[in-house]
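FIELD: query
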Amino acid sequence: MKALTVQQPWAWAIFHGKRVENRTQLWSYRGPLAIHAGARWSDRGEDSFLVRSAFREHNRWWDGRTTLPRDPFEMGAIIGVVDLVDVHPDGKRCCPPWGESGYVEHGGRERRRITHLVLENPRALAEPIPCKGALGLWNVPTDIVETINAAVIP
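FIELD: result
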């Protein structure tokens, strides 16, 4: 099984309405994809109107004006599985509202071109599986694949 490490709170959002992951690479892989919540927090994700709206919708206790509480966000673990059904370059905002056309990454000056990873059928795990992540598309260790398969309800 392939996996993708996604910083929080973006990883959480994938299981709460986000159906496009924005990357800079084109991949030929299609199929099941484990979503690994990385160990780093994304300030850009925390500031995202879409993430904040989704969090408020699923957590009515949050007032929406303060910073996102970090407690509900698992980090350093596989949190679920999706189906990667398409990968394509951005086509003039073809995948609203989550599909981006470009962004400046980690304080740089260069605006990066974006590839959309189209995700379907999100299946969150009841219990996150601690696991070390990696950059890019990576292979989940066999023992963890078995745990994921046993835990995911199709």
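FIELD: remark
DSSP finds four helices and eight strands in the chain.
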